[in-house]
Amino acid sequence: MLVAALLVPVVGALVAFLVPSGRSRRRLRRFGRSDESSDDLADEAEPEITLIVADPDSVPEPAAVARAGATSRTAVRIAALAAAGLWTAIVLLGGATAGQLSAQGPVGPAGAGASLLLASVSRPARRGAAVGGALALSLLTAGLALAGGSASGGPTLAVLALAGGAAVITVTTAKENDGGIAAATLALVGMVGVAGGLVQVEAAGTDATTAAGRPLGAGVFLVAGGTLIATAGGLRPRRSASMLLPVGLAVGVAAGATLGALGEGTALVLAFGAVAVAAGWAVAPEGRGGVRLLVVALALMALAVAAVPIDALPGSPLVEGRVSPGVPAAWLVATAAVVAGVVLVPSAALSAVPGAAAFAVVVAAEPSPAGLGVAGLAVAAVVAAAVAVARSDAAPQPGPGDDAAGLALSPLVATVPALAVGAWLLVAPRTWAWVGDTNLVNWTESVALALAGGLIGVVAAGATGRLAVPRSPHVVAPDPVMVVTDPPVARRAALVAGVALGLTLLALVASS
């Protein structure tokens, strides 16, 4: 099943590539000439001279090209939905292994999240962009599966696969030419950080999958790299680069739990970053930036929660013996960020409530300065986000091309499973065994009482005219408007980051 989950996107890419491009070849005009004065005998006849005048290779037929692009994109989205189903089955079955590949812990959920994010992408409806997204999904999920394995050489192969996926996304983003090359550059720089951290690990002769014995600074490199990768994915919703969001979270949260004393400062910096992003969204004119900034703020807060150094709670078993009890809360918040990245509506952030509650339980049991600081900054970020939502329009405006014919799948196709995951997370987070012990006793009963009380209050307020109940609440937002072209300086920066990543990968291969 694990191998099938990795190969399904490749099959989708192959199908998309085989779709006719919609360009028709012009006829070749042939001009012949023969010498009429030649003898009739075949052995003495002069050969015929033929002049072939070829027109350009192909000419575009706009309607056919549009249909071909939509068909390619639909094939990739169907493959991504199938991959998401396989990854979800792997999670429900408790993980899977195949040689050096392993889908234990957060690997399966990250693969499912990346697949759903690709399934929500409908534009650009072009064959090349669709094929690139599918190949990137296969490379990124293979990198996560290699990182979860314990075989020697796994970390190096994992980074090579992740870097390959980031490179494919960068090329695809450059062809989209809608202002996303800067985010792709962030992802490349983040990959440099991840590779640089593993270079330090390999130089110290330690296993990258073991928390103990990490060299000073390697964890910080990994957290910084994961943060940049996740931020790049959050800034590019409904585009192929959005798949980077769960990848960066998987790397950053796992590394943040191993920082030890360095985690205090790192957690506060990340939490300040979340507040700054939410505040920027609140003060932006006309809500510019949209829900994508909320996604980034949730991702930064998840990384901050993971980095807080907290000892074990009494009676709380720890994952692998060294992970702090704050990590389950971080995984829950990270999942909420992915759900919000798929549906792109502010109400999706409610799925972060279980993670916030789990972190509050941990901080209450051990009120360290770093934990209290992160909790306070989380409240400030919530207030800023609430102000931003209040200032934004109730109904988001669709971007150009949302009503274009030929897109057989709408964002709702990927949103339905994402909303189901968010509802499951909100109602029964304790059933998520892969995150660890959340210490949320009687959570389901408390949520049921809160929902019942809230429903009664809403109905009463609506009946008395004190509350305007919306007739058609939005469960999914249209594609955000992205009309900015990539400046030449951004493309040069991406090239420099790509060169730096290549050099770092060479150093990693040499040190392994």
Commentary on this structure:
The two termini are 30 Å apart. The protein is built from 16 helices and six strands. The protein is globular. 61% of the residues lie in helices and 4% in strands. α3 runs parallel beside α11 (327-343). By secondary structure, it is mostly helical.
SSE topology sketch:
Layout: H1 2-18, E1 23-24, E2 29-33, E3 49-53, E4 59-60, H2 62-92, E5 97-98, E6 101-102, H3 107-119, H4 127-148, H5 154-176, H6 181-203, H7 218-234, H8 244-256, H9 262-283, H10 291-307, H11 327-343, H12 353-365, H13 369-391, H14 411-427, H15 443-463, H16 488-511
Antiparallel strand pairs: 1-4, 2-3, 5-6
Helix pairs in contact: 1-2, 1-4, 2-3, 2-4, 3-4, 3-8, 3-11, 3-14, 4-5, 5-6, 5-16, 6-7, 6-16, 7-8, 7-10, 8-10, 8-11, 9-10, 9-13, 10-11, 10-13, 11-12, 11-14
